[in-house]
UniProtKB/TrEMBL annotation:
InterPro entries: GntR_C, TF_FadR/GntR_C, Tscrpt_reg_HTH_GntR, WH-like_DNA-bd_sf, WH_DNA-bd_sf. PROSITE patterns: HTH_GNTR. Gene3D superfamilies: GntR ligand-binding domain-like, Winged helix-like DNA-binding domain superfamily/Winged helix DNA-binding domain. Pfam families: FCD, GntR. It comes from the Bacteria. Keywords: DNA-binding, Transcription, Transcription regulation. Transmembrane segments: none annotated. Coiled coil: none annotated. The gene is lutR_3. GO terms for molecular function: DNA binding; DNA-binding transcription factor activity. This is HTH-type transcriptional regulator LutR.
Length: 255
């Protein structure tokens, strides 16, 4: 594992990035590499200045950026420590204010669609047989739920949505990209808050999941993208209906 100063001096860093951004990224890499937990001591500004071989102003700017994101914290005469040890904690701080309003929820839903479809080439390339079998298991569980006529419509929707989100989480994990997985997990957590907008479960939804899995088994990325795009169309319909409602309310306010 290369030392932070080796990474800093390597040619892989784009010269267009401010030095403070490079330092901030290296501090984050150190937190991840050493699996530092909240409260772990990172040192003082003076210590980091010496460690990275840059000026105090560069370190202070990097530290200020990370403190603003909630990654690190500090106290005078004590030094700096880890405030949040993973990207999910930072993303939650960004997304919580967004999901408290309808517009914010719509943006989260749109971002979910973009990430899922955009990640399918990596999923197609990296997915394992075990992961395909797990997706198939979730599909079978959804089929069992839909066939259970003892469940109320409300309980069926709740349980079906839980399985649906589990399917999409497992799908993105198959991309084998930790950053995408963590980002998606946070998005799905807040996307679920819009369950009142979800359509009732149908056999067509299960069929669409099956088409995605079949395409992935055949390593057919184009077919997987097409099937997932069709499957996610209801989200677009929900977003469009919400937009129309918003526009209608806006027009009425001017009458």
């Amino acid at each position: 594992m290369p030392e932070p100063t080796d990474l800093l001096n390597s040619d892989s860093w784009a010269t267009s990035f401010p030095k403070s951004s490079e330092i901030a990224e290296l501090i984050c890499l150190r937190i991840q590499r050493e699996k530092l937990v909240p409260g772990s001591y990172l040192g003082t500004v003076e210590k980091l200045t010496e460690e990275f071989g840059v000026s105090r102003s560069v370190i202070r700017e990097a530290v200020g950026n990370l403190r603003g994101l909630g990654v690190i914290t500090g106290r005078p005469k004590v030094g700096l420590s880890v405030a949040e040890g993973d990207i999910q904690s930072v993303l939650r701080k960004v997304l919580v204010p967004q999901t408290t309003c309808e517009k914010g929820w719509r943006e989260v839903a749109q971002l979910r669609v973009v990430i899922e479809i955009g990640s399918l080439p990596m999923v197609t390339q990296n997915i394992t047989e075990a992961q395909l079998d797990r997706l198939q298991q979730i599909i079978d569980e959804q089929s069992t739920l839909l066939a259970n006529d003892q469940l109320s419509s409300g309980l069926l929707l709740q349980k079906f949505v839980e399985k649906d989100l589990l399917f999409h989480e497992a799908l993105l994990q198959s991309a084998n990209q930790e950053l995408i997985t963590q980002f998606h997990q946070v998005l799905m957590k807040y996307f679920q808050q819009g369950i009142d907008f979800f359509p009732l479960p149908t056999s067509q939804m299960i069929h669409e999941h099956q088409q995605v899995v079949d395409a992935l088994r055949n390593r057919d990325c184009a077919a997987a993208v097409q099937s997932l795009t069709v499957h996610l169309k209801p989200i677009h319909s929900i977003l469009n209906s919400l937009d129309e409602t918003t526009e209608s309310s806006s027009d009425e306010s001017f009458d």
